[in-house]
Amino acid sequence: MNRFIPLLLLLLPAFAAAESPWRLGVAMGYGERSNPLLNSDDLPIVVDVDIAYFGKRFFFDNGDVGLTFADNDRVTASVMARVRSDRVFFGRTNTRFVNIGSTGQALESPVEVEPPDRDYAAEAGVEFLSDGRWGYLQLNAFHDISGTHNGYELDLDYGVGFRAGRWYLRPSLGLSYKSADLNNYYWGVRPDEANEALPAYEAGAGINTRVRLAANYYFSRNWMLTLSGEYERLNDEAAGSPIVSEQAVLGYFAGFGYRF
To answer: Which of 56, 61, 87, 177 could be a cystine partner for 154, CB 3.0 to 4.6 Å?
Structure first.
């Protein structure tokens, strides 16, 4: 699935005071992101911090670092490095014991069922961004450089922002192609992790789809009401894993934001 983007990035338009290369903001409220894993808790969101720096070439954007090598009227192109955040789902799992196996047959004794643990991965790649009155189009390509999953992801996102009085709205659509190595590392079940209730599983490549809608109501230049909703559909290879219980990942947030 797509990297876990801090919700504040979906809520605040990516602009800051012209005299400063820094973008600083904080949002407080409540939201959740559903966890598709078996025996897992959803991810609550109460406070979200937005910290970014955009220099002439170098930039830092909430954990992503990059260097822009092309910037003209048509496209902005950068090389980037990031940490894949799919690991956050695996940090909120629970161990349960079941008496029924994957074939529906009763087991002789309860078997422990818990999604296996997975690690964060460091990835490097390129980003291309083009925008205009028609909206924006963003293309990313990232490959694992840490040896964690040895896979890659291609991500395409289109969105458009528009204003209506004090409201700023930004709907967007996206596709993410996950290679077999990436998909299998996070959603597969290796033979040494399998048991009677959790069979071995190998995931192939697949495409996630998503839709987002963010809305801000500005009380002033700095204060705003922020609302956001997101729906992502896991590819069939990931959703078919025995450690996945839901194919849809839902997220929402409502609160108040302040931009410094």
So the answer is: 177
pLDDT tens figures, 205-258: 999 999 999 999 999 999 999 999 999 999 999 999 999 999 999 999 999 999
Question: What structural domains and CATH numbers belong to the chain?
Answer: 7-259 (2.40.160.40)
CA distances from 252 to 31, 184, 192, 218 (A): 5, 28, 36, 19
Place of tokens 């940090």: 91
The amino acid present at 134, given as its one-letter code, is: W
Instruction: Please give the radius of gyration of the chain, using alpha carbons only, rounded to the nearest integer.
Output: 20
Q: What is the pLDDT of residue 19?
A: 66
Supply 134's token pair: 């028609």
Neighbours of 222 (CB within 10 A): 11
Q: Are 159 and 175 in contact (CB under 8 A)?
A: no
Q: Which letter does DSSP use for residue 92 in this model?
A: S
| Total count of residues recorded for the chain | 260
**Cα gap 200→102, rounded to integer Å:** 11
